[in-house]
Amino acid sequence: MAEFFSKNLKFLREEKGLSQNKLAEKIGVNQTTIARWEDDNRVPTIDNAIDVASALNIPLEILLGKDLTKEKKSYFDELEVLFSKNKEILTDDDKDYIKFIIEKRKKEIDKELDRE
Fold first, then answer.
1. How many domains does the chain have?
2. CB 63 within 8 A of CB 53
3. Does residue 24 contact residue 34 with C-beta atoms inside 8 Å?
4. Based on the domain organization, do 61 and 77 belong to the same domain?
5. Percent of the chain at pLDDT above 90?
6. Helices 5-15 & 31-38, crossing angle to 10 degrees?
7. What pLDDT is stored for residue 19 in this prediction?
8. Is 53 exposed, middle or buried (CB count within 10 Å of its CB: 0-12, 13-18, 19+)?
């Protein structure tokens, strides 16, 4: 299976706030199966990969085809640019909250990338 599946599976599952158990229930497998896929110890069947993509609401080719953890990092960089261009329409509280969310999420992504 594609080289990014295990990394993307864990990243997207966590992004959606799903436990391994909850995702396993959604697609009809055991929680240990999800853990093994995430640890890259097992490879899912194509049917399982399709079920995962469906459960995570992402096209299969994207789930398998690229490192989404890096894509998300650039997404936050783009969000910062968008934020800086629209500062004048936001209150100070809005600005502080958005900055906080961006920085928090970037730290989470950096932490995840460092574990690999």
1. 2
2. yes
3. yes
4. no
5. 36
6. 120
7. 95
8. buried
Give the C-alpha separation, 39 to 10, whole Å.
Answer: 9
What's the confidence (pLDDT) of residue 17?
A: 86
Give the rounded distance of the alpha carbon of 46 from its chain centre. 20
- pLDDT tens profile 16-30: 889 999 999 999 999
Whole-angstrom distance, CA of residue 52 vs CA of residue 4: 14
Range of the domain at 33: 5-65
User: Does 58 lie in the same domain as 77?
Assistant: no
Nearest alpha-carbon partner for 60 in 75, 39, 46, 71: 46
Tokens in use for 26? 């959604």
Average pLDDT over residues 35-60: 92
Asked whether residue 9 falls in the same domain as residue 60, the answer is yes
Residue 79 amino acid letter: L
56: which DSSP letter?
T
